Amino acid sequence: MKRLASIGIPTLILGALTLELSGLLLLPGAVAGTRSPLLLYAGLHLVASIMVALVLYRAFPPVYRRPRRAIAVTLFALAFFIPFFGIPGLLAGLLLALYLPRRETPDPYMAIDIPDLPYKPLSVNPQPLYGSGGLIGVLRNAPNPERRIRAVMATRQLREQDAIPILRIALRDRVDDVRLLAYSLLDRMEQRINEQIKSQLDELEEATGLAAARLHEQLAHQFWELAYLGLASGDVYTHVLHQALHHLEQALAPLPRDSALWFQKGRVLLRLGRPDEAEAAFRQALGLGMSQTEVNPYLAETAYLKRDWKRVRALMEELPLAVRAEPPLSMLAQYWVASA
Fold first, then answer.
1. By residue range, what is the domain housing residue 58?
2. pLDDT band for position 195 (50/70/90)?
């Protein structure tokens, strides 16, 4: 049996059919009155039945092989006690059923329940389906906790920067379900960023040269996102900004002519309350080819922090009219340019 078990399935099938056919060719001698061909056929049929039972048992999926002994005995009995047709019939019927099952026609229709709000496509309008002001109003004034839960769920349609202040309001809700849902969404955002930071720090241990510089750039972006999205506050906020600044400086060492890195460094320095250094970084970004459209609003902010009102007005006037007309700069530009 162990030797049979080590033989491949095609060989076992061919051997079983050969033995069965050989035994059938001996049967005319048994009809003539000689007993030895009949005994020989019985022996060949026995071996062929064992081989077929082994083939079918090995071909069965694992879930159909239990109980093992009962399955093996049943297969052997079907093959042995149905002479002539048992072995070919088992091989044809069971193997075809196993490997050529009937394909079910997929149902072209699918019944779904009417979804609860919000259920409209998100790509129809560039504006979010629910404004942040409306959601804040629901969280503060709706007496029904279910409506407040829906408002928290609707923040998933907003940009993370817009959703986080709303979720922080929901953290103060008097109903546990609303608070827990808001906390879960905030924690998911923070966990995503922290996982990326951990992965990039692990890669940084083995990286060198330009690859290391790009990893420092990505890490600076992740730490900046923690601060920018409001996921960090207090001392943690200052810490993540210093981490972002550290990685930017590490990235700038081999990439001193990367204008995007200088621009990002200026934004971090602004958040740290260092306008002079931020202005130097922004001017470096301008000198390396970054457009005034992107840099001037931040240079105007540094001038404002230094109370240089004329410089703020001049920087706003340098912006193209199309840029000054679009939010979020439209009202600021209108104020400064109109006051000239």
1. 2-99
2. very high
Rounded Cα distance, 53 and 45, in Å: 12
Whether residues 133 and 91 fall in one domain: no
pLDDT digits (tens, 9 = 90+) for 199-218: 999 999 888 888 999 999 99
Q: Report the number of distinct structural domains present in the chain.
A: 2
The answer to whether the predicted template modeling score (pTM) of the entire model surpasses 0.90 is no
- Give the contacts of 63 (CB within 8 A, at least 6 positions apart): none
In a domain, 316, yes or no: no
CA separation for the pair 91, 253 (Å, rounded): 72
Six token digits for residue 177 = 């379900």
Rounded CA gap, 283 and 311, in Å? Answer: 14
Closest listed residue to residue 152, CA positions, set 114, 128, 115, 183? 183
Structure tokens at 158: 């907003």
CB 15 within 8 A of CB 40: no
- 68, part of any domain: yes
CA–CA gap between residue 307 and residue 221 (Å, rounded): 29
Domain endpoint, select from 142, 167, 190: 190
d(CA 242, CA 220) in angstroms, rounded, equals 9
Domain boundary pick from 170, 190, 210: 190
In whole angstroms, what is the distance from residue 301 CA to residue 315 CA?
A: 10
Q: Which two tokens stand for residue 67?
A: 């109980």
Could you tell me if 91 and 137 lie in one domain? no
Kindly state the tokens that stand for 4: 């049979």
| Nearest alpha carbon to residue 90 among 50, 42, 56, 45 | 56
